[in-house]
Amino acid sequence: MIKTTVKDQDFLKHKTDSLIVHCLEEKKPKGILKDLDRILNRSITSAMKNKRFEGKLNQSLLLNSRAALEAENVLLVGLGKAADLTGDRICQASGTAAKRAENTKCKKVSIYMQDGALEKAMRSVKAKSCEDPACLVAQGCYLALYHFDHYKTNDGDDPPSRVEEIVLLAPDKKRSASMVDAVDYARKISAAVCLARDLGSHPSNTVTPTYLANEAKKTARKNGMTCKILQKKDMEKLGMGSFLGVAKGAHEPPAFIVLEYTAGPKSLAPIVIVGKGITFDTGGISLKPAGGMDEMKMDMSGGAVTLATLQAAASLKLPVNLVGLIPATENMPGGSAIKPGDILTSMSGKTIEVLNTDAEGRLVLADALSYAQRYKPEAVIDLATLTGAVVVALGSHASAVIGNDADLTEKLIKSGTASGERLWELPLWEEYEKSVKSNIADLKNIASAGVGAGTITGAAFLKPFAGDQPWCHIDIAGTSWYSDNRPLTPKGSSGFGVRLLINFLEEEIKSRKKKKR
Ligand code: BES
Ligand code: ZN
Ligand code: ZN
Predict the structure, then answer these.
(1) Does the predicted model carry a pTM greater than 0.70?
(2) Which residue has the higher pLDDT, 510 or 121?
């Protein structure tokens, strides 16, 4: 990750390619902007007058300093109105600025963190357990400056310009110390998000179930977790007929990944995170159309987020008990693949009529949810790129959340809002559950024709496997992969869910402490 330092030096004397200054939406330059405006020949006043820059969210203005200060450029970035400021907005604006600096070939970027009024506004939004806003600023930079260039060779083209160094300018020694901790925190979260992004970006001939299992083992070893990989014969013993049904068509061996991180009170049941790990979804015998099928390499994003969240929690040493379950396989057509109409017996004993082999995510999750019950968990949260229907309902700006427990759902929605990874609840009324009952088996894996509500019926299928403990299903099919550049996420795999879940875990820890008092 990019070299980052914290310095308590006067910004006027600080040598850098680009000095980034966050600004609230104002009519006239205020605070530091007033000083900068004077130094820069009133160019900020003039930009504001012409509405070239008003401090609106993610608006930016690059000014060459013409040697009026040591920094070569001053880069203003808008935070929007003070009343609307959120942690996510600070993060976004920082990312926007860092990316603009990179696009203008700056190698060293420095961020001004010395303004009293702005600091107050930033602090008022409380950055999770890490209270210094520098944490949001650094996270914004790291996330926005993510690149996936693993497969690019030096084939003669000039290599693209990259930011190589970030400096956070602190007002004094005391603040420097808290900013150093904040940067460390930001690094750990961002590293986890980038791990999830990488896993989603790699093609399926790299990220196979075995590759995912090896990554999980590596992450566990580095972060003091345990990792167990169940192989086909182990799953057969457990009777995971639903998961193994999906794996039948693939030559790549499946893997059921079990991660455990126990740093919470012994008396406390774990929170289980389950992530769909389809390393490629062809649709199986119910084959998908060719256009855009390549994107189905990201159908293991739920699994990637599960692994990344456990890595983040462990590297931040959060005092929680967590289990991560990733049922990983390809979904392939072929001579031994399951066919429409086939009936599978799941680990729970329930039988499933497979009417569409492309609705495979729910089949692998069913057995994973059954497996989760052996932990008598406090809560189960599954993340899955489950349905195209969620893209119709919510597009790519929110994931759907559906569950059996109002309290858990509400907590997750709150964490979604706080982290900027938003959730929107869909209902799970009885009528939907009826639509996945089969005539000849217990359940069928798609709803009866004409029912619609594809995202809800997907969740309705999962519900019987989740048992009685609080459970929420998060459908990330629309949010795991972006087709446009975003302030914090370049086009492609997003890692959506990691920051949401870490926020959720931190809130759980806080509420535990409050209850104790
Ligand atoms: N992996 C897909 C869902 C998906 C769609 C993920 C778009 C990412 C982007 C899933 O396995 C699937 O194919 N679902 C079917 C279910 C249907 C057959 C009931 C779908 O949504 O079409
Ligand atoms: Zn599918
Ligand atoms: Zn799928």
Answers:
(1) yes
(2) 510
